[in-house]
Amino acid sequence: MEELIELIKETKRIALDSGSAQDITIKGTADFVTKVDTGIQEFLRPRLKTLYPDIQFMSEEKDNSTIDPRGKVWILDPIDGTTNLIHDYKMSAVSLGLVENGEPVLGVVYDPFTDELFCAEKGKGAFLNSERIHVSDADSMERSLISIGTSPYYKELADENFDIIKRIFISAEDIRRCGSAAMDLCYTACGRIDGYFERRLKPWDYAAGIVILREAGGCVMTVSGGEPSYSFPSDIVASNGKIHEELNGIINIGKQVDNKL
Ligand code: IPD
Ligand code: CA
Ligand code: CA
Question: Which atom of ligand 1 is nearest to the CA of 201?
């Protein structure tokens, strides 16, 4: 873990290069990649290969079609929060998870703007800059602050999404939208927020954050109560555990048990 942390922190100089953040290519609706994203990916890729030659490498800005999910796989989001990065919103993270035979076992999420580094290994607890972290004590939605994701690349989901978000908002103290799924999971892990919901996230958005949140005592599932996929997109509900049933119930109101989102 120590050598991994040192390596990830080295991405700071790439992440904070404002010129590269403005070197933008359009991938799809509201979906961009910058030279920072590709720069961090291509910085980490050969170094991880040298340190861990047997571990496969999945990353957002490359072709992942030959990855064998039964083996060990690094899952990297070189920048989670690219739209924030482009707008100089200063809320983006480097997210690196390790999945072994479909099970997430290690996660590192690094915020280069604050130098906050969240990390966890399965069974060993979760940490923020070497301090142990735990989820909040909030035990009801009315005492909770919930972060929501808008699934910005799937505007066709907006009606359904915003119906759910409205219900969450009415039930909770308030909602937040930070623009980085990895940070939402880590903020739930350290108790700054109490839960998080977003549909159609990709494995690199959550592979690292899931380990960190679970090791901090929280709960992460799909909206239908299953394990998120590390090969395909998943609809994610995350919480401190204590409000999970209530939050998930609010999300699933009106859905058949076997026909959830
Ligand atoms: C996005 C961010 C955002 C979330 C999107 C993600 P990207 O990741 O996590 O908060 O709403 O669903 O795709 O594209 O910036 O890596
Ligand atoms: Ca992402
Ligand atoms: Ca990304």
Answer: 12
Q: Residue 211 C-alpha to ligand 1 middle, in angstroms?
A: 18
What digits encode the pLDDT tens for the residues 182-234? 999 999 999 999 999 999 999 999 999 999 999 999 999 999 999 999 999 99
Q: How confident is the model at residue 256 (pLDDT cuts 50, 70, 90)?
A: low
> Has residue 106 got a pLDDT over 60?
yes
Q: What does the buried/exposed string (b/e) look like for 61-93 if buried means 16 or more CB atoms within 10 Å of the residue's CB?
A: beeeeebeeeeebbbbbbbbbbbbbbeeeebbb
Ligand 2 centroid, distance to 125 Cα (angstroms): 24
Strands 145-148 and 103-111: unpaired
Residues 40, 45, 50, 53, Cα dihedral to 10°? 150
Question: Which residues neighbour ligand 2 (ion) by CB within 5 Å?
Answer: 77, 80, 205
Cα 186 from Cα 110, distance rounded (Å): 10
- The pLDDT of residue 124: 98
Which one-letter amino acid corresponds to residue 235? D
Give the list of residues 6+ apart from residue 111 with CB closer than 8 angstroms, or none.
Answer: 91, 92, 93, 117, 183
Relative to the CA of 31, which ligand 1 atom is closest? 14
Q: Are 24 and 38 in contact (CB under 8 A)?
A: no
